[in-house]
Design brief:
The protein is an alpha/beta fold. The chain contains 23 helices and eleven strands. The radius of gyration is 29 Å and the shape is elongated.
């Protein structure tokens, strides 16, 4: 033995071989091959559906309940609303069946190829399921790589900048990943190595063949349905086919959108305005129609709206309301307010990016620019503290074209920060806006997106008598409060959402009561449904309210189906967010 042999590291494959021997010494599936095989088979199948219960806990459960979730053969073999684990992953079934039925006849070379191929495919399918679960949970959208890749890249950076979890979170995450890898490795080891394929009896082989027939039959009869995670049989092949089709449709939509000529689409330059009221376009974060449709909120929402309607009417305000169809669900606020400002329906992030890239030098004649051309000062309020890069900031400013940007630095706020931004409390920002408008000379068009009702809705800022005192108050706050990272039960999430949206509605009502602007037109509109507490069946509609002390400024909205008051007894969608641009212009023109 020489010195080199003592100091040379042991090759990795020898370590793995030794580890395999130790595992085989303790795991002896040969005594009960069918039991070990089916245990590994079911674990592998369940792992492929596990991302949905983990990532979409409000709409999933581990197993369906007979009599409630399964009331017929169709519920068992076709479609169930809850994305539970009692489902069959088609490619997993077919690959394992091929291995069991045919591998005893293969040579060693073919077996080695299959033993590499199956783990690679399994890993790919598992990763894809995680990605698909995130897209279904956040936006209830079908996975679409053409749209999702730029969205995920940008969103991931945004999330990492927004949250700074302690080291223990990374340790737990790392431990969970290691545990998952060990479970996957053990499952595949039992299937491919520990249990000889020819050790399984006729019963096991017959069950595999029956499952394969079910998978192939469903694939022939239903095809694209197998990409829906709520279908009892799922298919990676159907996933990829649906993703490709959705991506191609998105690419065509981008091309169609960028081919539009906005100067003919929104050619209002020859119009003369009948008046120049100050226009406030305020988007209310997560203000969705679920407040009407869910009994948990409906009566409290009705009471709050009636209260504010009475208080505002007593101060001379007139108001009409309706529902508007948002282009996005549960997030992507920029898609909602850009659709409204530009008069275009922009449902996908990739469309937004294409428009922003195109209209960097050539200015898009959006609502703010149109009003600027008619003598308005176009002001955009963005109070969040997180800063974009200088390049992104300049791109946004060229894209939207505001005359003035009021940012966090302009607010002179030194108190605790709240929410996703993080941001000052909306009570403070709205107070600042009211003060700014009181001293502003000339017609004003002002845009603002509220922040305090953004998910996760806790902690909420305190409510004070004088909004100015919030700037230096030593209240507890901050976007990293423990409540934000706790895994809360659904009932608590719903209560948190209600408290947050009620806070913002109260702050907006107070803002209107104290708005010293007798000639104002105020549009309050939700950006999208709240995430985590609403479902796909709740739709994409959001409330919209238009208020003015001069009832004449509401006439155009009445003609378009808006109803009197803040509360809608029979809420109906009468417009889309992309209609806001034209409606405001026509209102100012037709007065």
């Amino acid at each position: 033995m020489n010195l080199q042999s003592l100091t040379s590291p042991i090759p990795l494959h020898l370590h793995l071989r030794a580890l395999g021997k130790r595992i085989r010494a303790h795991v002896r599936p040969a005594a009960h091959p069918a039991l070990w095989f089916w245990l590994a088979f079911l674990v592998g199948n369940g792992l492929l559906f596990l991302p949905y219960p983990l990532l979409t806990p409000q709409r999933t459960q581990m197993l369906p309940l007979p009599g409630r979730d399964i009331r017929s053969v169709g519920d068992l073999l076709q479609w169930r609303g809850h994305m539970d684990l009692l489902r069959v992953y088609g490619e997993w079934v077919l690959l394992v069946t091929v291995w069991v039925l045919w591998s005893p006849r293969w040579g060693s070379g073919v077996k080695r190829v299959f033993r590499v191929l199956l783990p690679l495919l399994f890993g790919l399918m598992l990763v894809y399921q995680g990605y698909a679960a995130v897209m279904w949970e956040l936006y209830h959208n079908q996975p679409n790589l053409y749209n999702d890749v730029p969205f995920i890249i940008g969103g991931l950076r945004f999330v990492l900048e927004a949250f700074h979890p302690p080291l223990s979170y990374y340790v737990l995450l790392g431990g969970a990943l290691v545990g998952l890898l060990l479970l996957v490795g053990g499952t595949l080891y039992v299937i491919l190595f520990a249990v000889p394929a020819d050790a399984l009896g006729r019963t096991s082989r017959g069950l595999l063949v029956a499952l394969s027939v079910l998978v192939l039959g469903q694939g022939i009869l239903y095809r694209s349905w197998l990409a829906d995670p709520r279908w009892a049989v799922h298919s990676f092949t159907a996933d990829i086919a649906a993703n490709v089709q959705a991506s191609l449709r998105s690419r065509e939509a981008v091309q169609d959108l960028t081919r539009l000529n906005p100067y003919t689409l929104h050619d209002y330059t020859h119009y003369t305005l009948k008046g120049h009221p100050n226009v406030y376009l305020i988007f209310v974060e997560s203000y969705g129609s679920i407040l009407y449709s869910d009994p948990f909120y409906r009566e409290r929402y009705r009471s709050l709206m009636h209260t504010w309607q009475a208080r505002l009417e007593a101060r001379g305000w007139h108001m009409v309301s309706s529902l508007s169809e948002s282009p996005t669900w549960g997030g992507g606020s920029w898609l909602a307010y850009t659709s409204a400002m530009f008069g275009l329906r922009i449902p996908q992030h990739v469309q937004y990016l294409a428009l922003r890239e195109k209209y960097q030098v050539l200015p898009y004649p959006n609502l703010g620019r149109f009003l600027h051309s008619k003598g308005y000062d176009y002001v955009w309020v963005v109070p969040i503290t997180r800063k974009l890069s200088p390049r992104e900031t300049e791109e946004n400013r060229r894209f939207y074209g505001a005359d003035r940007w009021i940012t966090f630095e302009d607010l002179d706020y030194h108190g605790p920060l709240y929410g996703w931004g993080p941001s000052p409390p909306d009570q403070f920002t709205l107070g600042y806006i009211g003060e700014f408008a009181r001293h502003h000379e000339g017609p004003l068009f002002l845009f603002f997106l509220t922040q305090s009702s953004h998910y996760p809705w806790v902690p909420l800022p305190p409510v004070v008598d004088d909004w100015r005192t919030l700037a230096t108050a030593a209240f507890r706050g901050g976007s990293q409060a423990p409540e934000e990272t706790d895994r809360l039960p659904f009932t608590q999430l719903r209560e948190n959402y209600w408290q947050a949206i009620a806070y913002d509605l109260n702050m907006l009502g107070d803002f209107l009561l104290h708005l010293e602007d007798e000639n104002a037109l105020v549009i309050l509109i939700g950006d999208h449904q709240p995430p985590a507490v609403s479902a796909r069946s709740d739709g994409y509609a959001t409330p919209i309210h238009v208020l003015s002390r001069d009832s004449g400024w509401l006439e155009e909205f009445r003609r378009r189906g808006f109803r009197p008051g803040l509360w809608l007894e029979n809420p109906q969608v009468t417009m889309g967010h992309e209609d806001v641009y034209e409606m405001i212009v026509m209102d100012l023109v037709k007065r």
